[in-house]
């Protein structure tokens, strides 16, 4: 289609538009809804998106909020005299961070976390370290008592920016089956029905 438009000088300017330019159709498009029980396969490894740099604020906040009184986390003068030469990041923060990073791939659709097992800190984490995480599916099984979920056992591994392995743990979420979740673009995980743009409005 060709539009003819008058310019300020009175000259005619021809503009050619593709058919796509005229389209006013809108549609709801599904984003990532997380994995359902059926999506997990034993042996699969998911490298979770984004690294996260640990700050001093993270460490001080976690230490204070949980009343962790070990001076290694909040006393710089004390920590400077230890073998590490500086404060260490609270290990429970490293655990929480790695687990949180794994949620997008492992437990967006979990109804419960049944356990955290075999937690091992392999190396210290310091202020300014960037943490990356990945999970491996170890096992999965159906439940006789609940037909809407299944149990998935995973191993979570965290690394720093130098590729050093800093944390391993196993966690076992109970994950919804797809047919019971009824995912849709209009009501993704965490949204209440009827909130935001609805299909009938388009």
UniProtKB/TrEMBL annotation:
Residue numbers spanned by region Disordered: 1-26, 179-202
Record field: compositional bias (Acidic residues): 1-13
GO MF term (any one): lyase activity
Start-end of Basic and acidic residues biased regions: 14-26
SUPFAM superfamilies: Thioesterase/thiol ester dehydrase-isomerase
InterPro entries per record: HotDog_dom_sf (IPR029069), MC_hydratase (IPR048274), MCH/BMMD (IPR052342)
Classification via PANTHER family: BETA-METHYLMALYL-COA DEHYDRATASE, MONOAMINE OXIDASE-RELATED
The protein's name in its UniProt record: Acyl dehydratase
């Amino acid at each position: 289609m060709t539009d003819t438009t008058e310019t300020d000088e009175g000259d005619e300017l021809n503009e050619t538009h593709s058919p796509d330019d005229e389209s006013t159709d809108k549609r709801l498009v599904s984003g990532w809804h997380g994995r359902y029980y059926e999506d997990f396969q034993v042996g699969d490894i998911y490298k979770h998106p984004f690294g996260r740099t640990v700050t001093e604020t993270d460490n001080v906040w976690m230490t204070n909020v949980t009343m962790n009184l070990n001076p290694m986390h909040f006393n710089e003068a004390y920590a400077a005299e230890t073998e590490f030469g500086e404060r260490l990041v609270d290990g429970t923060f490293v655990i929480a961070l790695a687990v949180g990073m794994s949620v997008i791939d492992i437990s967006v659709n979990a109804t419960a976390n049944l356990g955290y097992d075999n937690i091992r800190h392999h190396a210290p984490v310091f202020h300014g370290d960037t943490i990356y995480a990945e999970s491996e599916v170890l096992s999965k099984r159906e439940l006789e008592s609940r037909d809407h979920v299944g149990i998935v056992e995973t191993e979570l591994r965290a690394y720093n920016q130098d590729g050093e392995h800093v944390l391993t743990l196993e966690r076992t979420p109970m994950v919804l089956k797809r047919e019971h979740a009824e995912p849709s673009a209009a009501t993704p995980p965490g949204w209440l029905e009827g909130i935001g743009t609805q299909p009938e409005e388009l």
